[in-house]
Amino acid sequence: MIDAPSSAPSAAAPQRPPQARAPFHVMTKPSGSRCNLDCHYCFYLEKEKLYPRGPTDVMRMPRALLETYVRDYIAAQPGPVVSFAWQGGEPTLMGVDFFREAVALQKRYANGKTIENAFQTNGTLLDDDWGRFLADEGFLVGISIDGPRALHDAYRVDRGQRPTFDRVMAGMDVLKKHKVEFNTLTTVHRKNAPQALEVYRFLRKHGSGYIQFIPIVERAPETGPAAHGLTLASPPDPLRAGGADDADASAARVTPWSVRPAEFGAFLCTIFDEWVRRDVGRVFVQHFDSALAKWVGAPGGACVFAETCGRALAVEHNGDVYSCDHYVYPEYRLGNLRETPLAQLADSARQKKFGDEKATTLPRYCRECPVKFACNGDCPKHRFAHTPDGEPGLSYLCKSYRRFFTHIDPAMITMAALLKSGRAPAEIMRLQK
């Protein structure tokens, strides 16, 4: 974390970039989709097709563009804390010096604000140089790991199709050695979804006190290539979603590695039952934390469960700004940092419409659902199924979330009551014995 004193601009300094009307988040991809791994389920690797380049060109954010981004993003945030999120592709391919420069620019333009940095990596390239830098600058690191060796290596392989588990674990050891704060990001897919407790206990054993689960849901066109020369299908138009009258029928169009419609819910319920008996207050799982926030009437921390979206943008290596990390397609390109201030793109009418449509296109089946307050229809990217009465726009994971939020309701009511009475939610573990 960086706390920088305010400094008065010189007389020759350019006019400060505009401030946004409300806070927003940006996922920054300085290396674009470039990665040293070839994870079978990755939806981002093929995005390199959107940026044709010559044999000597490399996806890499130039220094001048980095400065523009850092300056504009800090200026755009209306609050006292500015959080940068660095991702890819694989951001370690940029090298430590790129991020040293980024931190130096953050200090230069902080203007009295507190700067935070989060860094998502596959962990395979982490070494002591990285460890020292990440520790010294207070980066929060997310490391991608899908569970024990066999489950992780099922899909997470390198460019030579070799397993990566040992290299990821070595990277995690670097973070522990240098006392870098880290959490884990685990994708839930066709292979590891049936092994919920094996996955959870592995993550708990290896020191991840903060766990994020991401369901893998990707589609391939039924016939012919996808749009823009890509292999995977673009996110659905909520008004023309699906192609069948049954949510289960949509499973025929998803990729072989995607989690099944009800499987992710079973995965979460199984882990929740162990967590609520022994790990409340000791292990933090994003889905559970977000749910508890909903039960106490707070917004919750996961954008997929927000009523609307649109305040989480993505910035590519060349300065292109997109509506969302999952919507990096030409039709969702808002503009470029070199041409338009970031705050202006975040506050644009086009982006507001994108975010509001999450609520305005919600099917009646969802609006009348008893767990709508917690789910809000899931991420629009997943809304390619139909409701039982044939209305488009239902999440492919509807069965999972209905089961999960219904299953946890009694425990959530108890923990919410504990919180409201000034007691710790962890007391639920004693109450159950």
SSE order, one letter for each helix or strand: EEHEHEHEHHEHEHEHEEEHHHHEEHH
Broad shape: globular
Mean pLDDT: 92
The residue ranges in which pLDDT falls below 50 over 5 or more consecutive positions are 4-12, 239-252
Q: Compute the separation of the termini in Å.
A: 41 Å
Approximate helicity band: 25-40%
Number of helices: 14
User: Based on DSSP secondary structure assignment, what is the total number of beta strands?
Assistant: 13
- Class derived from helix and strand content: alpha/beta
Quote the beta fraction.
5-15%
Rg result = 22 Å
Overview in brief:
The protein is an alpha/beta fold and 433 residues long. It contains 14 helices and 13 strands. The protein has helices at residues 63-76, 96-109, 128-136, 149-153, 165-177, 196-205, 263-278, 286-295, 342-346, 349-360, 364-367, 372-375, 398-420, 428-431; strands spanning 2-3, 25-28, 81-86, 114-121, 140-144, 182-188, 210-215, 284-285, 312-315, 320-322, 333-336, 385-386, 392-394.
How would you explain this protein's 3D organization?
The protein is an alpha/beta fold. The chain is built from 14 helices and 13 strands. Strands 1, 2, 3, 4, 5, 6, 7, 8, 9, 10 and 11 form an eleven-stranded mixed sheet that branches. The chain has a two-stranded antiparallel sheet with strand order 12-13. α7 links the parallel β7 and β8. α8 (286-295) crosses α13 (398-420).
Secondary structure elements and pairings:
Layout: E1 2-3, E2 25-28, H1 63-76, E3 81-86, H2 96-109, E4 114-121, H3 128-136, E5 140-144, H4 149-153, H5 165-177, E6 182-188, H6 196-205, E7 210-215, H7 263-278, E8 284-285, H8 286-295, E9 312-315, E10 320-322, E11 333-336, H9 342-346, H10 349-360, H11 364-367, H12 372-375, E12 385-386, E13 392-394, H13 398-420, H14 428-431
Parallel strand pairs: 2-3, 2-9, 3-4, 4-5, 5-6, 6-7, 7-8
Antiparallel strand pairs: 1-4, 9-10, 10-11, 12-13
Helix pairs in contact: 1-2, 7-13, 8-13
